[in-house]
Amino acid sequence: MPNKEINEKSNNVLKKIINRRQELNISQTDLALKLNMTTSGYFKIEKGNSKLDLIRLFEIAYLLDTEAKDFF
Known about the structure:
This protein is an all-alpha fold. It has 4 helices and no strands. It has helices at residues 3-23, 28-34, 39-47, 54-63. Helix 2 packs across helix 3. The longest helix has 21 residues, at 3-23.
């Protein structure tokens, strides 16, 4: 799979995470704290500057009251 396609799919997942977080009126700071992360660390994930691993994805989905599969 070409890098461009991977990046597009990754960006779509991140957009869905952001949209869900905003739907629930949860700030980046609040979510970062619940994930035991710094705000800047979480910000980097949402911006795609830091890779999102599966464990972190499952944690985010849980905190956003959804299933990880809903981000795909």
